[in-house]
Inverse folding.
């Protein structure tokens, strides 16, 4: 009985230390669970897998640092898959603060696969105007970005861009979303120009997008850290998202265990008080 009483009164700092160790351990020791990928994640993976070699994918970075834990590992997993299939990437974004994050991931993964800027990937950067930008890209991608990439290099000097003028010249748009930009891609790029749209999003955004999946306007949704871990597993390259899912699971189990222990200790303590009174 005294054992449970002590547990009920355990110093919260000890709990925080145990929780910290539990969360950090999967990242230190590369611990993962063998999760069965969700159907939506498999749908996105299979679509990218079906694209002919040399096809171009537009990557839209529509998140910032606050959503990095969910979306950055997802982006890296998708980029690894794209480059392993010898597909090409055009990276842009409708969140100004997000483009550098996307560029960071793109350059990291491109270097892993020996990809060359201007031939295998291009960064167009950010342009204000969201809906206008998406619509105008359907008319002329070059003109929409003033005929230059993010560093001011003329697009005419980048071999990859020579045959890419409109949405007709790309295979799909894959947006990474922490807000409502994904809906803009669906409403303006897909509805108006018939572009195939896939979206990776934070867990809280996903429910707003399933209506578009049911209507057939959206190819697939990769949702949250779980979706990122699924994609890593499908791409056979487990990394941050897989370790994060393990850490999250361990933390949830530990918290539930502490709640149960605390309640047992409380019951024993109250029982003792009633007997003594």
């Amino acid at each position: 009985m005294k054992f449970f009483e002590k547990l009920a009164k355990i110093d919260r700092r000890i709990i925080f230390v145990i929780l910290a160790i539990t969360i950090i351990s999967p990242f230190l020791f590369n611990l993962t669970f063998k999760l069965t990928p969700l159907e939506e994640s498999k749908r996105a993976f299979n679509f990218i897998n079906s694209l002919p070699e040399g096809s171009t994918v537009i990557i839209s970075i529509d998140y910032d640092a606050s959503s990095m834990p969910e979306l950055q590992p997802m982006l890296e997993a998708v980029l690894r898959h794209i480059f392993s299939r010898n597909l090409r990437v055009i990276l842009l974004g409708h969140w100004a603060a997000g483009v550098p994050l996307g560029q960071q991931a793109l350059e990291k993964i491109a270097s892993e696969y020996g990809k060359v800027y201007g031939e295998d990937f291009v960064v167009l950067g950010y342009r204000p105007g969201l809906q206008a930008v998406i619509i105008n890209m359907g008319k002329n991608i070059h003109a929409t970005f003033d005929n230059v990439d993010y560093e001011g290099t003329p697009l005419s000097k980048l071999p990859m861009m020579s045959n890419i003028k409109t949405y007709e010249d790309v295979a799909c748009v894959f947006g990474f979303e922490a807000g409502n930009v994904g809906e803009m891609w669906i409403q303006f790029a897909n509805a108006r120009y018939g572009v195939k749209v896939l979206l990776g999003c934070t867990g809280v955004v996903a429910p707003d997008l399933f209506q578009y999946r049911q209507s057939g306007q959206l190819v697939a949704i990769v949702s949250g850290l779980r979706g990122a871990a699924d994609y890593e597993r499908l791409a056979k390259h487990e990394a941050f998202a897989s370790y994060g899912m393990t850490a999250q699971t361990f933390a949830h189990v530990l918290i539930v265990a502490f709640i149960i222990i605390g309640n047992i200790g409380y019951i024993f303590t109250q029982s003792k008080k009633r007997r003594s009174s």
